[in-house]
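pls design
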């Protein structure tokens, strides 16, 4: 396992279009997943220990952000031939086990991960209502550790984006396993 960190945020960068299949069998595009006040695009997978350690917090944040008008979508771009735990069938199980209340999409061609310049799992992109990037950082201050009162960095940032359309606070890069390229 190689741990990578995400690059610095490129504020104002526009979200890239996609149309991918979700674990519910439906296809979703950018317009269908965005909320009135913004959108979080999270690159995750099923097998990464970094994702596994925070997956239930991801589901919680998605639910609470939805209440603020912020949409949430997760995308798995990993090579499922080399990493069978990340297969579409296993994505369905993973989403069900962790009560995902948001689309969990398969990027089988890895085209979308490349368009977003995603580098690791998890990799979080927070956009405002105009789909301009405002946040690229970690979920919280706990990293891979279990810390009950960890600072909810993604939630704080996206709450501000929902209210003001901008986030000007500190952004600490996410850390995780490298994306598994074909």
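designed seq:
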């Amino acid at each position: 396992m190689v741990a990578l960190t995400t690059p610095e945020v490129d504020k104002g960068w526009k979200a890239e279009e996609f149309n991918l299949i979700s674990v519910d069998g439906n296809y979703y595009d950018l317009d269908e997943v965005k909320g009135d006040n913004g959108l979080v695009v999270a690159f995750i997978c099923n097998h990464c220990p970094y994702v596994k350690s925070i997956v239930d917090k991801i589901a919680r944040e998605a639910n609470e952000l939805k209440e603020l008008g912020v949409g949430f979508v997760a995308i798995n771009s990993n090579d499922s031939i080399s990493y069978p735990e990340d297969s579409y069938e296993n994505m369905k199980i993973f989403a069900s086990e962790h009560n995902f209340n948001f689309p969990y999409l398969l990027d089988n061609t890895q085209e979308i991960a490349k368009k977003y310049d995603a580098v690791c799992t998890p990799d979080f992109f927070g956009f405002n209502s105009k789909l301009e990037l405002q946040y690229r950082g970690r979920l919280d201050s706990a990293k891979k550790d279990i810390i009950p009162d960890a600072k909810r960095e993604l939630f704080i940032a996206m709450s501000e984006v929902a209210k003001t359309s901008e986030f000007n606070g500190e952004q600490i890069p996410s850390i995780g396993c490298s994306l598994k390229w074909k």
